[in-house]
Amino acid sequence: MNKTILGAAVAALALSLSAPVATAADEGIMKYAINKPSTAWNVYGPGQTNAYVKDKAVVGGGGVRVAVATPDPAAAWRVSGSQAVNGKIAKGDVITVAFWARAEAVEGGAPAATVTNVRVQQSAEPWGGIVEGGAVKVDSAEWKIYTVSGRAAMDADKGGAAVSLHLGSSKQTVVLGPLFVLDFGANYDPSQVK
To answer: Which pLDDT score, from 0 to 100, does residue 188 have?
Structure first.
């Protein structure tokens, strides 16, 4: 599955957020979902404010607007958005994190935000990294799907993982929409989803 096909599949899955019954188009990708697709972001950390905003332009009808006023580039993880991963993860599985996001202009600049790290991690101490995804540039005021994929470095029991987006690197405003976490298993070629 290449990135374009993955994006289309995730978009079809996203449509199921507002549909009462899953359609044939999204049932195929849904079998890989290990979270309940949601906009229920838990945003925390100093120097930020956040609030749910309604927006009919994104599937699900809204997202969480995070405004970072006091960045800490050396510890960007201190301001994060997170969501639980309900499913089990096995070491070696190919995991894809896909999320809708858009940026807002800050102080007259162009709409841009940086998610310093997209991370699937243990949901309790020691917060071990299961998949480290690196930085994502949210480069538009329009909603887009952003994806990060990698192989799981360790196992996680059912409900023992979470996705964390590190947001505190710069003064910025980002709106986080629905999140999807997909587990393609150990035999999938991760280059197909990059």
So the answer is: 84
* Distance (Å, whole) CA 164 – CA 81: 6
Q: What is the pTM (predicted TM-score) of this model?
A: 0.86
Query: Domain span at residue 155?
Result: 3-193
pLDDT reported for residue 189 = 76
* Of 83, 173, 65, nearest in space to 119 by CA: 83
What is d(CA 172, CA 184) in angstroms, rounded to the nearest whole number? 33
The CATH number that applies at residue 133 is 2.60.120.260
Mean pLDDT of 70-93: 97
Residue 139 has pLDDT above 70, yes or no: yes
CA–CA distance, 145 with 190 (Å, rounded to integer): 18
Strands (E), 2-116: 42-44, 48-54, 62-68, 80-85, 94-104, 113-115
What domain count does the chain have? 1
